[in-house]
Recover the amino acids of this structure.
């Protein structure tokens, strides 16, 4: 009972929130989310799409799993990597993390 009468007393004090301030706060929150989360993520997605689109036979790549290999075939949305002598594995193109400079695999 004590808390209920206290709540009524607070709401009856006459101070109401300005709806314009609430809208400005939501707008600021959206801008914050856009510039710190959405925009950088879209930029990374665009860079990755360009990387995947530029893959060629003979490129040395590192996969998201950390596996290194040389591309021997491109088959639609898949790449065939030679990871060792006479060992070829097929991966999705989206799993390519980065293209390495030529000769990197032999240097390791």
């Amino acid at each position: 009972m004590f808390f209920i009468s206290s709540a009524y007393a607070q709401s009856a004090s006459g101070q109401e929130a300005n709806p314009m301030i609430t809208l400005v706060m939501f707008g600021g929150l959206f801008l914050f989310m856009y510039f710190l989360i959405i925009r950088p993520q879209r930029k990374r997605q665009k860079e990755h799409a360009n990387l995947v689109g530029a893959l060629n036979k003979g490129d040395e790549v590192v996969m998201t799993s950390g596996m290194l290999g040389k591309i021997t075939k491109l088959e639609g949305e898949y790449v065939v990597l030679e990871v060792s002598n006479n060992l070829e594995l097929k991966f999705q193109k989206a799993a390519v993390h980065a293209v390495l400079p030529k000769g990197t695999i032999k240097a390791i």
